[in-house]
Each structure stands twice: as structure tokens, then as C-alpha cells.
Amino acid sequence: MQVHRLNSMILKILGVWKPYKDRYYIFKFYKINLTIFIFIFMIAQFVTVLNEDTAKIWDRKIAFSVGFISLMGLIKRLNIMYQQKNITDIFETLKNDKPFKIEDQSEKNIQDYHYRCLKRLTLIFTSCAVIGAILHLGKKLNSHELPILPFGTGILVEISNQFFYKLMSYILTTLSFIGILMTVSYNTLFFTMMMIICSQVDVLKYRYQIMVENLKINRSDDQNIDDKLIIEKKIITDFVDNHSEVLEMSQKICDIFSTIIFMQYAYSTIGLCLSSYVLTRDILLSAEFLSHTIIPSLYALEISLICYISNEMKNQYEELYDAIYDVDWTNFDQSTKKSMMILMMKTREPFFFKCGKLFEPSRESLLAVCTIFILIFHLIQY
């Protein structure tokens, strides 16, 4: 399983996913300059919040929100640049290491199923986020006229030339859009890596069923008992090694994304709650109300998908543990029983993704966020 082509293309356009080596120097120049522009734009938004003169022209809440989105996009950008080698190594491991190679058509069908799920997830999330961002930024761009730019610049700038005004407006809007797009592409990359874990655990569950069948076949063969025990030990050892490899890869992926997803989860939750305050100031179902629902809807979708993919990985591991325990191995040799018990002990600890190593995003945490959102909405409204 690889990064979805749409996500890979967006990451390359944003200058964070290195292309072929023969174009690396041009890409490096583009990557550095784009990062500098994003950083300057982010600083300009926060300076707009702090500067009394600019705060009279641009809304401080909006400037702070745009600045924070740009900050999150910049952090995610730097994180991918820093972790790209580790992420690439994971894909190389999946491609070359024996425990992760597809062994038969059934395993290929399992991987294809998870890739189809990833494809739907990527297309739905990317489409909703991009369309929502375009509608929101388009409305903002059209609601400002010369000489006031759609986004804060940190200092008072008087622009009288219509061409220069439009050029600056489009540049600022593009930089704001890049921050949103960076968040979207980072999250879809996270979904990809988590779906890889789900796929590998599902394959591991299938291999365990095959392992048990092989043990039964080996037990029925007319071989020397010592030869049978050697074969059974090798079969179980191969599975334990495979499980350890998958567990190690799962931990690597969680370590790469844990802190940033925690920051995103916290920011989206706070943004969702603050958006409820903005919605209470609008007339229900008015044009203003509907336009203000775009951003909180994206926050809600983002949190929901993070909880969904984390819960999916947890369920896959739980199903694996259930499959390991749900086997009648009483007819096996005493030595094999001991090996099976060791296997159960090694796999009994549950594995789940933790945001910032603090809490697990799940259906329960999603329900808590929705409850808080509704509660705050009603409290402010009344």
C-alpha cells in the first residue's frame, strides 16, 4: 500500500514531498522559499492581532484564526520534512521485508480492501476540505475592496493601484489556502499510515488462521514426533516474528504522528467550540449563518475521521487477539501448547494510537467533543 496519488501530488505541490533526484535542487529552492513566505504570512497575522492600528481594520479573531491555521500548517510541513526519511523507510520495509510481502491472493484481497477504504476516505476528506476552503476564502476575497486587503499584513499598508491590490489579495489568499491544504494533506498521510497498520494486522489475522491449519495438518502427518515438534515450533516462531514486526511498525507510525495529531485534535476541538459562539450571533439559516458553518463542519469532519481511523486500528488488533484466543489447541502436543501460551501472552496487551501519548481518540472522545459543542452552543444561546 502506498500514499494515494492525490495526496502525493498535493504534498509535492506544497514542496514537502521530495520528487525525483534530478529535480531535487529546483525543488529545494522552491521548498525553502515557500516555507519562508508561509512563515512571514503567519507572523503578519499575529502582529495584526497585537497591533492596535491594524486591529481597527482587520478583525482580531479572524486574524488569530488564520494565523493559527498557518502555524499548524507550518508545523505539519516541518514535521513531514523532518520525518520523510522515516516515512520512506516504512514504505521500503513494506516493499522489501519478507514479513510484509504478499504471499497469496487472499492477502492481496485484504490489502486491496483497505486501499479502497483509504481511497474513499482520502477523496471524501480532501474534496470536502478543499471545496469548503474555496467557498470560505472566495467569500472573504469578494467581501473586501480597495484599499483594504482580505488578510492582515501586520502593518498599515495603503494601496491605490488596482492591479497591485488584486495581486496582493491573491497572494495572501493563496498563502491562507496553502495552510489549509497542508493540514488536509498531513491528515490524509496520517490516514494512509494508520490504514497500513490496519491492513497488516488484518493480514496477520489471516496468517494466524493459516498457521493453525498448518499445525493441524502437521499433527495428522505420518512423521516422527520430533520432526513434527520442530515444524510446529518454526510455524509459531514465524508468526511471533511477524507479529513483532507489525507491532514495531505500528509504534514507529504512532511516534511520527502522535504529537502533531494531538495538537490538531486540540485545536479542532477548541475551534469547534469557538465557532459555536460565532453561529449564535447569526440568524438561523441565513446566508451568514450557512457561510459560518463551513469551518466548524470541517473541524467536526477532521475530528471524526481521526477518531474513526484510530478506532479502526484498535478494532483490528482486538480482532487479532480474539482470533488468537478463539482456537481449540487442546489436541496439540504439550510443547506446542506452551508455545501457544507464550504467543497469547505476547499478544494480549492491546495496542492503540494515543494523541500526544495522553489519550486515545475514539468514539467515546468524539461523543465527548460533540456533547461539549452542543452544550456550549446552548449555553451561549440562552
UniProtKB/TrEMBL annotation:
Coiled coil ranges: none
Entry's transmembrane regions: 29-50, 62-80, 121-138, 170-197, 256-277, 289-309
GO CC term (a single one): plasma membrane
GO MF terms held by the record: odorant binding; olfactory receptor activity
Phosphoprotein keyword on record: no
Cell compartment(s), UniProt: Cell membrane; Membrane
Key words of the record: Membrane, Olfaction, Receptor, Sensory transduction, Transducer, Transmembrane, Transmembrane helix
UniProt membrane topology term: Multi-pass membrane protein
Main location: membrane
Superkingdom to which the source organism belongs: Eukaryota
The UniProt record lists the keyword Iron: no
Gene Ontology biological process terms from the UniProt entry: signal transduction
Similarity field: Belongs to the insect chemoreceptor superfamily. Heteromeric odorant receptor channel (TC 1.A.69) family.
Protein name from the UniProt record: Odorant receptor
